[in-house]
Protein: Homoserine dehydrogenase
Amino acid sequence: MKPVKVGLLGLGTVGTGVVRIVEGNQEDLSSQVGSPILIERIAVKNTEKPREIEVDPSKITDDPWEVIRDPEIDVIVEVMGGIAGTKEYILEALERGKHIVTANKDLMALHGSEILAKAQEKQCDVFYEASVAGGIPIIRTLIEGFSSDKIMKIMGIVNGTTNYILSKMSQEGASYLDVLKEAQELGYAESDPTSDVEGLDAARKMAILGTLGFRTNVELSDVSVSGISGVSKEDIAFAKRLGYEMKLLGIAERQDEEFSISVQPTMIRASHPIASVNGVYNAVYVYGQAVGETMFYGAGAGAMPTATSIVADLVAVIKNLKLGVNGLKQIVPYKQKKLKSDEDIFYKNFLLLHVDDKAGVLAKITQVFAEYDVSLDSVVQQANTNNPDAEIIIVTHNASKASMNKVMRHLEQLNVIHRIKSHYRVEG
Ligand code: HSE
Structure:
């Protein structure tokens, strides 16, 4: 049987995992697709670099265009990362009728609609399962598993680095900076951790999940983002005392046909299944109108989990190739985009305030909430052993984001409040 020929762009940890799975599981894979799968060419940055796996040197090039232009190659697997240059390679490969498997969330979040439109024009597949939550088959699940349902909510822990940091802070009472340093030493966090800790990586993944879940074109700029660099060990201790865990949650919610999407450190009720997802693991909780609650858990990164998703995509492309149906299963968003305004986004809030410890202060503060019609769930005051301030912890009932913005602006003007120490979204 004629082999299906694959061009690999990138041979780093994930690319190495792809070669290992394709070669190691060849018998099983070729039985599934009906022909051998051959990694024909590999583009790398440095051809001299020593590799963990043995690769025939004649397959290796440092020019990705050689791979893209090779007429023998049917499918391009892109694991080199990057945005502008990589987009050019992928668009040119599609122009030449090659199918694409990519792990590139940055590219898909920023240019997914252009790439998918080109794929449709050329009747090619573009699969990107590994771009969100590495080894968890969440993209296929949203496209196929939920095709009969209406997804109302997606909550994701889709960034392993921040989940590792917050889990350690919660379990060991450690500070953000200490755990970040440890995560960098262990290789979990990058030397420049900005994209992970400030929520950008998670926002890109949530834009992809939102697009698929709500079948509308969710762009990165639709996602409101805040990261974990301001989360203190005291915040986490308060969260635990109130029965919550702190997680960097991506939350995409739909009501009628309008949706909101955000990434922020969130206090989630400890009994919620996603609250117990710790360490570098990822999880995606999906609430479907008909099915109710579901949750998908697993490794969000790492060579072999990510490679598993990539090779599964490769199998899907080749099965389509055999059936002659490539390019027919793309989800091109078909719903008009309707973003909720801040008046229509509701959630509970946690606030920690440092205030004067004297008569009438609490009344002045609660008056502000009443003025903007924000109802309170609980108010607790405690003495602070480190300074003469009192600490006031306030948890609201569901309140609109717009009302809470007004409350926050007003609280900032109150001179009895020395500091608004923390403000978090509360779920569950
Ligand atoms: N930097 C990501 C994370 C892994 O920490 O989850 C790749 O998406």
Notes: The domain at 138-299 is CATH 3.30.360.10 (Dihydrodipicolinate Reductase; domain 2).
